[in-house]
Amino acid sequence: MNHPARWLTRDDLASSAATASGLLQLSPDASSAVPLTPHDVATTADALRAAGVGERDRVVVALAEPAGSLWASASAEVAAAAATAGPRGRMRLHHLLSSVRATTLVATPTGAMDFLARLHLEFLLDPLDLGLRQVIVTGEIASPHTLTHLAGEFDATVTEVLANPFSGAAMAWRSSQESDFAPALRKARLGKDEFADSGEIVVAGDDTVLRTGYVMRGSLHTVGDHLLIRGVWVSLARLDKAMSKIDGVAGWELTVSRQGTLDAAVLTIRFARQSLVGNPMWKSRIEQALHGLTPVKIAVEISPEVGESRTPGIVTDQRGQHLGRDRALLT
Predict the structure, then answer these.
(1) GO: which molecular function terms (predicted)?
(2) How far is the CA of 77 from the CAs of 74, 97, 202, in angstroms?
(3) Is 27 helix (H, G, I), strand (E, B) or coil?
């Protein structure tokens, strides 16, 4: 007898870290944990081959965990050599690329763009001297013209890979931001648990359908109670909960922008009492609460205005990526 599939979101995976088994792909805030499967490695290897990576290439992966190790493992199956460098330290990354004699760089779109900008402006180095043949970007939504710009600066083939937001494994890829991802992705309606030709990208298993939080609506967007900042999914519900525990917080607004090469996040706090506005201890409490929530750097600003009544948190995505928290309101 066939049972109907269970439709899940990232919130439904909150307890998975305590029950999942095997080699776990653990999110930075431990909100989800999924076992690494041979299929994850195989599809990621397929993406590398589609990007032109072959047995003579040497790959350096500059991604955060859990994606970094997965991509390095898949690269080792396809290329002559693979190493993971982590996402931080641009000068160190340049040194590693040169030392390994890398022909392929795997990074986030903003990480690759920031690396390129620092090569020009800070290190005064020519990106062509690295001799990269392929650049693969994944883990974030790329800004317009990113692929074209990177291809011209590095004189390399640039491929964008849409990764599973839970495991980091490749799901689909494309060589132009004007093209569709391939292979074809399963999609579902935003406000109803049923498959559709357009809508939210889902991962369909034997008895579950997992909503990824990615939406194809002309271009790639995000939806739901998690916000993608610098390649990390930040839980807005956990942010709500953390702020509600701090006495005197009446409201907050999380603003995300990408004015330069990297995402910048600012949390503006509105207090209920004027005496807290200039209190450094209260601001420090909020900063420490954010450190406990996510590895993403979120600056804290205090609004000069006060309000006694508590109001819901607000998300302002100046990048234009996040469509909203409530899927039902976006249909």
Answers:
(1) phenylacetate-CoA ligase activity
(2) 5, 19, 27
(3) coil
pLDDT digits (tens, 9 = 90+) for 9-28: 888 887 777 888 899 898 88
- Is-cis flag, bond preceding 183, omega within 30? yes
Q: Where are the beta strands (DSSP E) in 193-313?
A: 195-196, 199-204, 208-217, 219-222, 226-229, 232-235, 249-257, 264-271, 298-306
Query: What number is the average pLDDT over the span 73-98?
Result: 96
The dihedrals phi and psi of 43, each to the nearest 5 degrees, come to -70, -35
- Measured N-to-C along each axis, helices 109-121 and 90-100 cross at an angle, to the nearest 10 degrees, of 90
Query: How far is C-alpha 42 from the chain's CA centre?
Result: 21
Domains of the chain: 36-182 (3.40.50.12780), 228-330 (3.30.300.30)
Supply the DSSP symbol for 2. P
Assess contact for 282 and 248: CB atoms under 8 A: yes
The alpha carbon of residue 264 and the mean position of all alpha carbons in its chain are separated, in whole angstroms, by 13
Q: How is residue 223 written in tokens? A: 């939806």
Provide the residue type at 157 as one letter: T
d(CA 278, CA 239): 22
Q: What are phi and psi of 220, to 5 degrees?
A: -80, 135
Helix, strand, coil in percent for the chain, rounding step 5:
30, 30, 40
Environment class of 237 (CB within 10 Å of its CB; exposed 0-12, middle 13-18, buried 19+): middle
Q: How many residues does the chain have?
A: 331
Instruction: Work out the average pLDDT over 77-84.
Output: 98
Nearest to 24 by CA among 142, 149, 166, 186: 166
Residues paired with 222 in a beta bridge: 214, 322
The string of pLDDT tens digits covering residues 106-132 is 999 999 999 999 999 999 999 999 999
Non-local (6+) Cβ contacts of 279 within 8 A are none
Longest dimension (CA), the chain: 66
Neighbouring CB atoms inside 10 A of 60's CB total: 25
